[in-house]
Amino acid sequence: MDPSSSSRARSMPPPVPMEGLQEAGPSPFLTKTFEMVGDPNTNHIVSWNRGGISFVVWDPHSFSATILPLYFKHNNFSSFVRQLNTYVSISVSPLNDLTVFFVFFFTIVFP
User: Where is the sequence biased in composition, kind Low complexity (predicted)?
Assistant: First the structure.
């Protein structure tokens, strides 16, 4: 090894993580889910409940076919539910063939 390259390595500062990488924030999955649910153009497919503490998938087929592929690399409703369950504690309540998600610590923010 060349002695001059060894001294250059010792004089270089250690690598520093890029700014913002250590800041806490929601995962991309949760951010995308929040955007999907909050889109007023798709309220007939998925929307917040009136209180903003849960969201309802009104039409799981349309949700899978049209909305999931816009945000994710798949259109599988079961995969979406499974992934959601890994990030937050959820309770799924089937009600008249609707899927209501009660997602704790994941609510709409009212202005």
Answer: 1-11
Residue holding tokens 């951010």? 31
Backbone angles phi, psi at 91, to 5 degrees: -130, 125
* Separation between Cα atoms, residue 11 and residue 104, nearest integer Å: 50
Architecture of domain 27-103: Orthogonal Bundle (1.10)
Residue ranges covered by each domain of the chain = 27-103
Does residue 92 sit in helix, strand or coil? Answer: strand
- Give residue-wise pLDDT tens across range 13-33: 665 555 655 566 778 888 899
The predicted structure's pLDDT at residue 91: 60
Prediction pTM value: 0.64
Beta bridge pairs of residue 90: 103
Angle at 100 between CA 96 and CA 105, to 5 degrees: 165
The pLDDT > 70 percentage for the chain reads: 56
Query: For residues 69 and 46, what is the distance between their CA atoms, to the nearest angstrom?
Result: 14
